């Protein structure tokens, strides 16, 4: 059995795709900051600076990459802006999950991984601060304490689909890639780059599965219920 098991969040443990969530997120940002950005430009600015995180080369944290880029775009410093965004994530972000259901098998699968004695990682794309990710975990019926590592924009220096993201996780938890299993629903973001650093892969089959165009074959495949049996 693998020494570490990595779980993607969106479409894997949480029945919500990242691209489906972004309109909610941008709508929430616009409402919270409309007095500062009455022209509605904030979502586009945030998206552009998110690209700076996705293209981060490992020389700085994703948070630093975001704030350097974002500050240049709007002419303000991280010190001025970050407290305002922290208030948004603390006070408003949680309501963006209204109506998002939870898969009971998600919590069971994570618990099965823990029973194996494996290091359990929430390997969600690290483009949000920790507080936002914890909200999203709770939408999925999970608690942060279920994970030994949660990747966020403060502790990671790469983002999906950069294989460096998976390499950093392996280094941070002290487990070689060859002893890790990556569980995800997206070949391009979750499985192909994980395999590049030697990880085994489990494709979660659901309506959210994205196999991509190139015929990638995961080491294992099945529903969350199948994953529970596999881990047990």
- CATH architecture name of the largest domain: 3-Layer(aba) Sandwich
What is the CATH superfamily of the largest domain?
Answer: HAD superfamily/HAD-like
Low-confidence stretches: none
CATH topology of the largest domain: Rossmann fold
**Helical proportion, percent range:** 40-55%
The helix-and-strand class reads: alpha/beta
Radius of gyration: 18 Å
Strand segment count:
6
Beta-strand level of the residues, as a percent range?
Answer: 5-15%
Largest sheet: 6 strands, parallel
Principal-axis shape:
globular
**What's the helix-strand series?**
EHHHHHEHEHEHEEH
Q: In the CATH hierarchy, what is the class of the largest domain?
A: Alpha Beta
Mean pLDDT: 95
- Helix count from the secondary structure assignment: 9
Note the gap between the termini: 10 Å
Oligomer: single chain
Number of domains: 2
Describe the structure in your own words.
There is one protein chain. With 232 residues, this protein is an alpha/beta fold. It is built from nine helices and six strands. It folds into two domains: 144 residues, Rossmann fold; 79 residues. The protein has a six-stranded parallel beta sheet, with helices on both faces. The protein is globular, with a radius of gyration of 18 Å. The N and C termini lie close together (10 Å). The model has no long low-confidence stretch (mean pLDDT 95).
């Amino acid at each position: 059995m693998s020494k570490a098991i990595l779980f993607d969040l969106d479409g894997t443990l949480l029945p919500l795709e990242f691209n489906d969530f972004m309109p909610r997120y941008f709508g929430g940002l616009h409402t919270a900051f409309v007095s500062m950005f009455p022209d509605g430009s904030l979502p586009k600015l945030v998206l552009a600076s998110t690209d700076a995180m996705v293209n981060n080369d490992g020389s700085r944290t994703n948070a630093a990459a975001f704030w350097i880029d974002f500050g240049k775009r709007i002419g303000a410093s991280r010190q001025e802006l970050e407290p305002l965004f922290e208030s948004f994530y603390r006070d408003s972000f949680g309501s963006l999950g209204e109506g998002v259901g939870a898969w009971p098998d998600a919590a069971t699968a994570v618990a099965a991984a823990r029973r194996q004695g494996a290091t359990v990682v929430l390997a969600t794309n690290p483009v949000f601060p920790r507080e936002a990710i914890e909200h999203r975990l709770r939408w999925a019926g999970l608690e942060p304490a279920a994970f030994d590592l949660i990747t966020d924009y403060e502790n990671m220096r790469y983002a999906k689909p950069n294989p460096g993201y998976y390499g950093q996780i392996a280094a941070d938890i002290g487990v070689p890639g060859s002893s890790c299993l990556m569980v995800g629903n997206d070949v391009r973001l979750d499985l192909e780059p994980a395999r590049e650093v030697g990880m085994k892969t489990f494709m979660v089959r659901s309506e959210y599965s994205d196999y991509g165009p190139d015929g990638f074959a995961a080491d294992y495949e099945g529903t969350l219920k199948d994953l529970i049996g596999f881990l047990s």
